[in-house]
UniProtKB/TrEMBL annotation:
It comes from the Eukaryota. The keyword Transferase does not apply. It comes from Trichuris suis. Belongs to the ZPR1 family. GO terms for cellular component: nucleus. Residues 21-200, 263-423 form the Zinc finger ZPR1-type domain. It holds the Pfam family jr-ZPR1. One of its GO terms (molecular function) is zinc ion binding. The lineage of its organism: Eukaryota, Metazoa, Ecdysozoa, Nematoda, Enoplea. This is Zinc finger ZPR1-type domain-containing protein. Residues 454-469 have a biased composition (Basic and acidic residues).
């Protein structure tokens, strides 16, 4: 096994299982060794290593032994210096990855052995395996597999072409320059199962080079993961009666305060019921609370969305936590809100916790849980002792803050202006709560998609359409 894959077994007496299996290179029988293990603070995995005594071919891979996560995940990593190549990486068997700069794209669901059964005919197509490695290790594996594949495919007509051989050699040269840190590039890792991971060297800080996006899986991805039947189709909502006539009708409807409608469960693809309600937060604005529960598989999820649009200005809320009363304040965090706790030197990006309606205590506990799950390599046995102590100390301080034992400041910076913290003073000034409004920068407007919205002549167009009608 690769030295970069360091695992910790719960049972130290557990021995690997040996199975005789076919070598995909020479077609003789080799030996596959399998071991059920666990990566600390991550999940259960099955480690497999193959070796052929006839041709010397070796390979190792990792298969997830845990469950499929609630959402898919996509990582965009900008590699701009040498230390970015040392980031540890977990790639599941369902993940795709790509490097746009060299036109490399590896599709979803690549399975063991297919890289040597498929003809490598262009520089933008390569099948690969699930691995635990580093960014540099991933690039080295690409070099090794492409270089090993060429000699065994010489009989193929496409490899007899000098132009194709030159193209492959050029591709290998590009990958070599990337692995040596000579050029900047972007690594995209997209995993519908949600079981892949790229390390953040400083989990307590916002990683400007790593963007993490969680998303709902498509039907095709559900089928690939085995979560939906192969013969299932997209839901046909054509001709279905509207659930409500308008927002105003819902707000004014006294007899039906909660909306109920059916959706397809993203876990088992059966019909599940979603409850939705508009809630007016006093002294703030309206929000939409949605909760889904599937009676078939027990899947549950909830979500909070601002009911209005993006505010004219961004807002910054600073709350000074001094006693337990501050922990019980209601809090709304939008999906665009950044979180900062200066006393802990903690900065959290907008997409980490998504939007939620909770309390200050609930937010601090959610931050602690998210840091524990996302700091896999900062807390494991292979972590640098200094970094491990630093992360453990941060988690301890977060726990103390959530219990009201550690005074600190909680800062919510929301460019969309859709976040909120409850004031304990209904009419006067809350001395521990400070709200500031500011003009957004051009970069923030770009992130919110406002630079592409042109509404100057909307009223004129509406009037013209009414006249034409």
């Amino acid at each position: 096994m690769s030295s970069s894959c360091e695992s910790n077994c719960d049972d130290v007496d557990q021995l690997p299982m040996e199975i005789e299996s076919l070598c995909v290179r020479c077609k003789n029988n080799g030996v596959t060794r399998m071991l059920l293990s666990k990566i600390p603070f991550y999940k259960e995995v099955i480690l497999m290593s193959f070796e052929c005594p006839h041709c010397g071919f070796r390979n190792n891979e990792m298969t997830s032994g845990g469950k499929v996560q609630e959402h898919g995940v996509r990582y965009n990593l900008k590699v701009v210096e040498r230390k970015d190549l040392d980031r540890q990486l977990v790639k599941s068997e369902y993940a795709m990855y790509g490097i746009p700069e060299v036109e490399l794209e590896v599709p979803y669901g690549s399975q063991c052995g297919r890289a040597f059964q498929s003809s490598m005919v262009s520089e933008n197509f390569l099948l690969y395996f699930p691995v635990v490695t580093t960014v540099e290790g991933l690039l080295c594996r690409i070099q090794r597999d492409v270089a090993d594949t060429i000699p065994f495919q010489q009989a193929n007509q496409c490899f007899s072409c000098p132009e194709m051989r030159e193209k492959l050699q050029s591709f290998l040269a590009k990958i070599a320059k990337l692995s040596n840190g000579e050029h900047n590039f972007t690594l995209i890792l997209d995993d519908p199962s949600g079981n892949s991971f790229i390390e953040n060297p400083n989990p307590e800080k916002i990683d400007d080079r790593l963007a993490i996006i969680r998303y709902q899986r498509t039907l095709q991805q559900e089928k690939m993961l085995g979560l939906a039947p192969d013969d299932s189709g997209e839901p046909d909502d054509e001709g279905a009666p509207p659930v409500w006539e308008s927002r105003e009708a819902v707000r004014n409807e006294v007899l039906i305060p909660v909306l109920h409608f059916s959706v397809d469960c993203p876990n088992c693809w059966h019909k599940a019921e979603t409850n939705m309600k508009f809630v007016n937060i006093p002294f703030f604005k309206e929000v939409v609370i949605m909760a889904t529960c599937c009676d078939n598989c027990g899947y549950k999820t909830n979500e909070v969305k601002p009911g209005g649009g993006i505010s004219d200005r961004g807002m910054k809320v600073t709350l000074t936590l001094t006693d337990e009363k501050d922990l019980s304040r209601d809090l709304l965090k939008s999906e665009n809100c950044y979180i900062c706790i200066p006393e802990l030197e903690l900065e959290v990006g907008a997409g980490i916790l998504a939007s939620r309606f909770t309390t200050v205590e609930g937010l601090l506990n959610s931050l602690k849980e998210e840091l524990e799950s996302s700091s896999l390599f900062a807390l494991g046995d292979s972590a640098v002792p200094e970094n491990k102590h630093k992360m453990s100390d941060l988690l301890q301080k977060l726990s103390e803050a959530a219990l009201g034992k550690l005074p600190c400041q909680l800062i919510l910076d929301d460019p969309s202006g859709n976040s909120y913290v409850e004031s304990l003073s209904e009419h006067g000034v809350d001395s521990r709560l400070k709200v500031e409004y500011y003009e957004r920068s051009d970069e923030q407007n770009e992130e919110l998609g406002l630079n592409q919205m042109h509404t100057d002549d909307c009223e004129q167009r509406i009037s013209e359409n009414e006249v034409n009608d």
